[in-house]
Amino acid sequence: MATYKTRAQFVADDLRGRILGGEFQGGTQLRQDALASDYDVSRIPVREALLTLESEGLVEFHPHRGAFTTELSVARIRELFELRILLETHTLRRAIDCLTDADLKKAEDILEKYDKALDSGGEIGNWSEYNFAFHHALYAPSELPETLAIISQLNTKSDRYIRMQLLYTQEIEKAEREHHGLLELARRGDVEQACELLKTHIQEACEGIVAVLEERTTLTEQC
Amino acid sequence: MATYKTRAQFVADDLRGRILGGEFQGGTQLRQDALASDYDVSRIPVREALLTLESEGLVEFHPHRGAFTTELSVARIRELFELRILLETHTLRRAIDCLTDADLKKAEDILEKYDKALDSGGEIGNWSEYNFAFHHALYAPSELPETLAIISQLNTKSDRYIRMQLLYTQEIEKAEREHHGLLELARRGDVEQACELLKTHIQEACEGIVAVLEERTTLTEQC
DNA sequence: TCATTGTAGTTTGTATACAATGTGCAAAAC
DNA sequence: GTTTTGCACATTGTATACAAACTACAATGA
């Protein structure tokens, strides 16, 4: 049953993970032939997978030249996070208004699992998933599917940079504390403070990433 | 030179137009074979075109069952337009801050062409293009490419409903007047008023569409 | 020397052919 | 009569094969 519906979907899911995991430098060409033999499929499902990833902004197609992983400039990263603030506070505001106990419980459960995973050795691998799952649980009650889809899209795009940041800095605990704070404010129905915290939560993550990126570029310039 | 780079792109562009033009009811299955013979290509480029349209939200894929045109509920349309207000006012705010004379001229030119086209017989066919071109011209100076991409995506999704509304009501002139007002406020650098006008401009379009949709559903229920 | 053109090789794009899955109807079982 | 099973057909998904486009490098000419 672990078998995927279609090969194209399988390739898309796996390749997404590889890109987000940092296996490819930004701007790397993804040769269809190589990927096809990697996954032991023909180039057709590979092409379809690449098209899917293009729509997610992880890859760019140039006609007759192929697919390349995208690279975000610092300006674009800032833009992405600014959009996240705009959309996520908007959604949180709505969600808090119609938050049920069951919704809170769900978010709490995710946070708890996540705490345990952290204690028993810092598995960074699926941190992003946990992170988004928690945020999503908080936003879901808003019942704004189109908005959630865009938020998810923005998170995917910024994901690999978040991972990179976590690799260099130890901000997981801080994020974790902020998540607990967020949950508590949501429980109390304090919309304004919750949105304010969410805003700084996202903003500081952005600044962290930018700092790491700029350090790295000055480093490579020195070499 | 009107020849497209790839067949897949050509099919995607043409099919998008057909869907937005209202040729298919919401929920219609798009048979790959039929489309392939329509365009005199194989099913491969058709599939790729459908994947592209899926990423734009015009079509939905169900594995092994095919692609269907999407249908938006009233709630989703409202959500879409609310997102547009949020993102477009945000972008307009930024754009006005760094608006040059050249930018204003561009927007003005579009508006002018558009006026002429209106006078010489109400060609509704490419009204949407003009409309978006004008909005885009206003937002472009903000230099927020990711945001503009999402705005464009939201506009595409709501496009066919806008066309439907225009078909039933005669709101083009009203929209036109509001566009002139928007341009004038932008020229004066009056951010607050411009955003306020933009907000009502989008809001009223939404209400118009919802009204038409609800009228149509009560009509079909009577039959 | 530098720019231009031509050509071989590589890679992408698409057509054709086949495999896998889903759908609908008819016959059988209850 | 209703439900279930099985099979034929239709449609999608994928492999293979071929055509078209791009790249890089060498040869030619100014």
UniProtKB/TrEMBL annotation, chains A, B:
Query: What keywords sit in the KW lines?
Result: DNA-binding, Transcription, Transcription regulation
What InterPro entries does the entry give? GntR_C, TF_FadR/GntR_C, Tscrpt_reg_HTH_GntR, WH-like_DNA-bd_sf, WH_DNA-bd_sf
- Asked if the keyword DNA-binding belongs to this entry, the reply reads yes
Which residue numbers delimit the HTH gntR-type domain?
5-72
Q: Does the keyword DNA-binding apply?
A: yes
Q: Name one GO molecular function term.
A: DNA binding
Say which domain of life the source belongs to. Answer: Bacteria
The family database entries (PANTHER family) matched by this protein are listed as: TRANSCRIPTIONAL REGULATOR, GNTR FAMILY, TRANSCRIPTIONAL REGULATORY PROTEIN
> Per its record, how is this protein called by name?
Transcription regulator
The protein's organism comes out as Halomonas cupida
